[in-house]
Design goal:
The chain is α/β, with parallel strands linked by helices. Helix content is 33%, strand content 21%.
Length: 854
């Protein structure tokens, strides 16, 4: 019996009428039904994509993928029976019936394989059911925001529970379009009205929405539900799908949250994953680029695997000692390994014992090799001990900057598949607020009642006691085991997780040790936490100055001098912002403190371009220190190095000179096209501006849960694309000219910002400058934003620079400047307080020029 016949859809935005067809096929009950199907591609395709929508969407969901698919790929996207524009049977349909229905349709369409299924929402379970029944035809699976199982101990999604309340389902799903409209209302930013209307167009009456309510009723929320066994069969069968898999996920989904993603990853451990930050439930709408990602993934199904950057070097890598080997070597040494200035001193002997004990305690508490442990502990002896204990237990450390803020940290850490958290009381409270999963361990010694309230299994002292009583050997990670996930600063977009294996970190440490000739009698003071953590692995003592490491500008000269004196430091590492603060407070140094700073032999600064005048001024504070500015990033550090004297010898140029590639590091550029894209073949020719690309043994293993980003960064086999733009000179030195995303494409040229900024910053009336583009690519107008030197508290009537300043800036810039604006300060990243957020600044400048004020 039919409640309504199939129809062709009306003209809708983005939907080509030529794709639509009505197809007759036998359903699960043996009845011939008529389906509406979007079908595009050749009669004899290389591959067929079978795209299955969920509830309450329809095949319109897949229009972008249909449009983007290669010419030799067929895309078939049916409206399920009762949904979209397909026939509406009178009776409700179950999951098992829908799988059978789909099988009948693919038979009618003469789809024989190879097939890649693509599923969203409950279309994921249906597509996987079809895939398991057609394993011989299956080439791969793609899933977006779906589920095949309700994880143990989890509640059903709140929106589904609400829709299932007695009397509610008929009201919100059938009698009114509330459920239909709610699906498209989840998107952020909001979808255009015409797109929302297109999704709702097949569901214009209660009769046409009946299957929407039936679909919700078919979701098994209890063990005795009529669909439970069918869903369980699909869930368990998914574990046996050994074909390539791609998961594309919107992490802001209130329907299928992180627990559903984690369940899918457990069932498809080989799946590639990309999380689209900010995307919600309707991933194909919220992240339109998903279609390009699927096409790229399809292209790789039959292509030979290209070597990763790390793999190119790993073949030739010599065996290296474990990360804690230098710590073990000094296990009987009473010298200071870690000093918390003004609080405590931990010897090498104490640290080695503590690391071993905590590692055994973690293992006894259930932390297993390969599991991920987030560290929410500020730089301290506890943090150092926890890091090495996690490594010693064979687990993986996960670190995100506090400077990302609670929301940014939560977004980053929730996507890292955590198994445990080690944190101070404040850290564990933050973990609860961020809804992080996993075991909890307290650093320090919080009160027992507080520890219980925060869910702590034990604190580090408890773990050490357990470890002393534990027997057996700790695991020895292999060089290819995962070691760390470290998040970028988020200065140029959402923070990205960067994966490292043991061999890559070991290679990095060896390069640092050899480049800077570090010896056992060196000691380091690091105003940047990672370098302090590396002290034990480098075999050198370390101290962290009394400062807020999330705010580099809080470093004072006296705090640095006290830290230097505490370990008799010979090496200092600090960001440019920290060094500026150091100079600003140097007048408060005592004679004893100046003497301590005078013994420093090496000063390193990185994280952003370091002005030469700043380094010169630091000679007054650390006269014996050789100043170096290594260049690198979270993904690979260091890449190049240069001293102050070498910077001065290089002279002026277009950008900032960051020196020569280090031994075993190769640097090339991918030249920019007239459209500003870095699509040229890699070259080392001098003065070819393009994206900087690096090949080295210590390049990261890849981005975590960001398959699309990783593919873009490693599209040249063996090379990492950094996102920075620059050029090599005749001497082989690298000059950085800015970020690829900040390149300006004007009507007459492609411009990079840093060179112009440096020329403007030479002006005595300018403290800092940033160059941004306003307007569309191809006709962008150059705008220079300056922070004027002088009184920072005087009032301005307008953000537009006064004529005398504007004239001076235009004369110095060396390019055509459309406008000169002024601000109190430039927006910068939190980690280093030095990287200018030119994207935000361009938005502000556009608003000012449009008349919205400053």
């Amino acid at each position: 019996m039919t409640a309504a016949p199939a129809e062709l859809p009306p003209d809708l935005p983005g939907l080509d009428p030529a794709w639509s067809r009505l197809v007759s096929a036998v359903d699960a009950d043996g009845t011939k039904r008529c389906w509406h199907v979007l079908d595009r591609g050749p009669a004899e395709p290389r591959l067929t994509l079978l795209c299955v929508h969920g509830n309450p969407t329809w095949s319109y969901l897949w229009r972008r993928l249909i449009a983007k698919a290669p010419d030799d790929v067929r895309v078939v996207a049916p409206d399920q029976l009762g949904m979209g524009w397909s026939e509406r049977p009178a009776a409700a349909r179950t999951l098992a019936q829908r799988v059978e229905d789909l099988s009948g349709l693919t038979d009618a369409l003469e789809i024989t394989g190879p097939v890649v299924t693509v599923g969203h929402d409950w279309g994921g379970a249906i597509s996987l059911g079809w895939a398991q029944r057609h394993r011989s035809q299956l080439r791969g699976v793609v899933l977006t925001n779906t589920a095949v199982h309700l994880p143990a101990g989890s509640a059903a999604p709140p929106l589904i529970r609400l829709a299932r309340l007695p009397g509610v389902r008929q009201v919100v799903c059938v009698r009114t379009p509330i459920f239909v409209r709610a699906a498209t209302a989840l998107s952020r930013p909001a979808l255009p009205a015409e797109t929302r209307d297109a999704y709702a167009s097949p569901y214009s009456s209660a009769a046409r929405r009946r299957a929407v309510g039936d679909f919700v009723g078919d979701i098994p929320l209890s063990p005795g539900h009529h669909t439970r066994s069918a869903v369980d069969d699909v869930a368990e069968g998914t574990r046996r799908l050994d074909v390539p898999a791609l998961l594309l996920w919107g992490p802001r989904d209130p329907v299928f949250g992180e627990r559903f993603l984690r369940d899918l990853q457990d069932r498809l451990p080989h799946a590639q994953l990309h999380r689209y930050a900010g995307a919600s439930h309707l991933l194909p709408e919220d992240a339109p680029g998903y279609a390009d990602a699927v096409v790229r993934w399809l292209a790789g199904l039959d292509a030979p695997a290209g070597p990763a950057a790390a793999a190119v070097h790993a073949v030739h890598a010599a065996p290296r000692p474990a990360l804690w080997a230098r710590l073990d070597e000094r296990a009987d040494d009473e010298a200071a390994a870690v000093v918390e200035v003004g609080r405590r001193r931990v010897s090498w002997r104490m640290l080695a014992a503590r690391v071993e004990e905590i590692a055994r305690g973690l293992a006894a508490a259930g932390v297993r090799p390969g599991q991920r442990v987030a560290l929410l502990v500020p730089p301290s002896a506890d943090l150092t001990a926890a890091v090495y204990a996690v490594w010693r237990a064979g687990a993986v450390v996960v670190v995100a900057d506090q400077g990302l803020g609670l929301r940014g940290m939560g977004r980053a850490l929730r996507g890292a598949r955590l198994d445990a958290v080690i944190g101070t009381a404040q850290g564990l409270a933050a973990a609860r607020a961020m809804r992080l999963p996993g075991l909890r361990f307290a650093a320090g010694a919080p009160a027992p009642a507080l520890a219980r309230a925060l869910g702590a299994e034990a604190h580090l002292a408890d773990l050490a006691r357990r470890g002393r009583a534990a027997a057996g050997h700790l695991p020895t990670p292999s060089p290819d085991d995962e070691c760390a996930v470290v998040f970028t600063s988020g200065a140029t977009g959402p923070a990205k997780g960067v994966r490292y294996r043991h061999r890559q970190v070991q290679a990095q440490l060896d390069l640092l040790r050899s480049t800077y000739e570090l010896r056992d009698d060196d000691r380091i003071v690091a105003a940047f936490a990672p370098f302090a953590i590396y002290g034990p692995a480098l075999g050198i003592g370390s101290a962290v100055p009394d400062m807020d490491v999330t705010a580099p500008g809080t470093l004072t000269a006296t705090a640095l001098a006290d830290a230097v004196a505490a370990v008799d430091a010979t090496v200092v590492f600090a960001s440019p912002a920290a060094l500026r603060s150091l100079l600003a407070t140097a007048h408060a140094l005592s004679t004893v403190q100046r003497t301590a700073l005078g013994r420093v032999r090496l000063l390193m600064s990185a994280g952003a371009p370091v002005p030469v005048p700043l380094l010169r001024s630091l000679r007054e504070v650390m006269p014996a220190a050789e100043a170096h500015t290594p260049y690198g990033m979270t993904e690979v550090l260091p890449v190049t190095d240069i001293s102050l004297e070498q910077v001065e010898a290089a002279g002026d140029g277009e950008g900032v000179c960051v020196g020569w590639p280090l031994p075993e590091v190769e640097v090339a550029v991918s030249p920019l096209s007239p459209a500003g894209a870095a699509d040229g073949p890699l070259t080392t020719d001098p003065h070819r501006t393009g994206e900087v690309c690096v090949q080295a043994e210590h390049v990261m293993d890849g981005y975590d849960a960001l398959w699309v980003t990783q593919q873009a960064s490693a599209r040249d086999p063996g090379w990492h694309r950094t996102g920075d733009v620059g050029h090599l000179d005749e001497a082989g030195r690298l000059w950085i000219e800015g970020r690829l995303q900040h390149v300006l494409v004007t009507a007459g040229a492609v411009l990079t910002p840093v060179g112009t900024e440096r020329r403007v910053e030479v002006l005595p009336q300018v403290q800092a400058a940033a160059v941004v583009g306003v307007g569309p690519a191809g006709t962008a107008q150059v705008v220079v934003v300056v922070v004027p030197a002088g009184d920072p508290v005087r009032r301005w009537s307008s953000p537009v620079a006064p004529p005398d300043l504007a004239v001076a800036v235009r004369a110095a810039a060396g390019v055509d400047v459309a406008a000169v604006l002024r601000r109190r300060a430039l927006p910068v990243d939190v980690r280093h307080a030095s990287k200018v957020d030119r994207t935000a600044l361009a938005g502000w400048a556009a608003g000012v020029l449009a008349g919205s004020g400053g």
